[in-house]
Each structure stands twice: as structure tokens, then as C-alpha cells.
Design brief:
Distance between the termini: 25 Å
Strand content: 5-15%
Shape: globular
Strand order of the largest sheet: 1-2
Order of helices and strands: HEEHHHHHHEEEEH
Number of domains: 2
């Protein structure tokens, strides 16, 4: 199946877009440097000389989440020959409008937009930056990356969400489709994922190599 984003990347981008308004709201509590910051499971006050924390302020400012999403929506409108989207209202309203516009166009982004990869990468970066402030992750809780979920739904579409195995877990469960993989399936699962990723890498290299014609 063609397109510019794999199913897993497309689903992850949708989830991140949907989270942006809540992340934007959550950053407000971290504007002041003395606000408690979680490190793993421990909360601590962070001292800083600035009266306002720089990263939350930047992300909540005009060039942060609002500017990034509005700029991508504007670029999308230009490429689709649509009228320029409005940039009116509060920052919260503008972010919500831009996110809604991008979500509404996700099918086209996935299948037809050559800049879909760069778009998905920047959305990932701003979402992860916000989450690193609001809820820093304990590395031991992230788990080991296994690969893309190979489960196929009733319509024949591969799930593609990223599977992870965390310490102490006896079953790997897909966070998107909830398909479970008990230990007996792990060797075959890893072999299938490794084979699929090797093929995907080979296809990407072939697509990037200039034609001799």
C-alpha cells in the first residue's frame, strides 16, 4: 500500500495531535521555575534564576505549539489550493482550530503529501518536548522497543503501532489494537518484525536511489 506515512506513524501522529491542546494547557503550571517537576516517581522543586521557565514559555508562545501547527496547516492549505486558514482568537482557540484542521486532513496527508514525514517528525518533537516538562519519563518505564505490531484487522490493514516490552511484563500488548503476544510467540514475532524492517529499509533505499533512465 502506497503513501507517505506507514500505518504506525500515521496513528502515532493522530494521537500526538489530539494530545497537543491538553499538553499546552498542562505547560501553564510549569511557567514558574519553582513549580514542582516530576523526575520518574519523585517530585522536586527546581531552582532557576529566571522569573519564568524558558521551555514552557517558548512552547506556549506564538512560535511554539500554536505557530508550528498553524504553519503546517497553512502549508497544507497552500498545497491543496485552499484558502488561508484563519489565525484568530486566543492561543488555545487557535491551537484547537489548527489541530482540528490537520486531523481532518490526515487521510490526504498520509497518502498524498510529500512533506508528511517532516510534518509527523515536528509534531512528534513538540509533543515529546511538552511531555518531558509535564511528566518526565523514568527510562525503566519506557521498555524495550520490539517493532511494529504485525496484527491485521478485519479490513486487512496492518496495525503498525510500536510494540514495547517492559521489565516484569509476561505478555506484550499492542497499545493501539490491544493484540497480545505471549512468550511462546516472541521468537516468531521478532523474526517477522526483523524481516519486515529489513524489507522496508531496502525499499526506502531503492526509492531514494536515482533512476538510470
Amino acid at each position: 500500500m502506497g503513501g507517505y506515512l506507514c500505518p504506525g506513524c500515521a496513528k502515532a501522529t493522530i494521537v500526538r495531535l489530539e494530545l497537543l491542546p491538553r499538553l499546552y494547557e498542562g505547560l501553564a503550571a510549569f511557567l514558574h521555575p519553582g513549580a514542582p517537576v516530576r523526575v520518574g516517581r519523585v517530585s522536586a522543586a527546581v531552582d532557576a534564576p529566571m522569573p519564568v521557565a524558558e521551555l514552557p514559555l517558548t512552547m506556549r508562545g506564538p512560535g511554539g505549539m500554536v505557530g508550528v501547527t498553524e504553519d503546517w496547516l497553512s502549508a497544507l492549505h497552500q498545497d491543496r489550493r485552499m484558502s488561508e486558514p484563519a489565525r484568530l482568537g486566543t492561543h488555545e482557540q487557535r491551537l484547537a482550530r489548527a489541530v482540528a484542521g490537520l486531523l481532518a486532513n490526515m487521510p490526504w496527508i498520509v497518502m498524498a503529501w510529500p512533506t508528511a514525514g517532516a510534518f509527523a517528525e515536528e509534531i512528534r518533537e513538540i509533543a515529546n518536548s511538552a511531555r518531558s516538562v509535564i511528566s518526565p519519563t523514568d527510562p525503566t518505564e519506557v521498555g524495550k522497543r520490539i517493532g511494529a505490531c504485525p496484527a491485521i484487522d478485519a479490513s486487512g490493514v496492518i496495525c503498525g503501532a510500536i510494540l514495547r516490552h517492559r521489565p516484569g511484563e509476561t505478555v506484550i500488548v499492542c497499545p493501539w489494537c490491544n493484540c497480545s503476544f505471549p512468550p511462546a510467540t516472541w521468537p516468531g514475532l521478532k523474526a517477522f518484525i526483523d524481516h519486515d524492517e529489513r524489507n522496508e529499509t531496502r525499499h526506502e533505499k531503492e526509492a531514494a536511489w536515482p533512476s538510470a533512465s
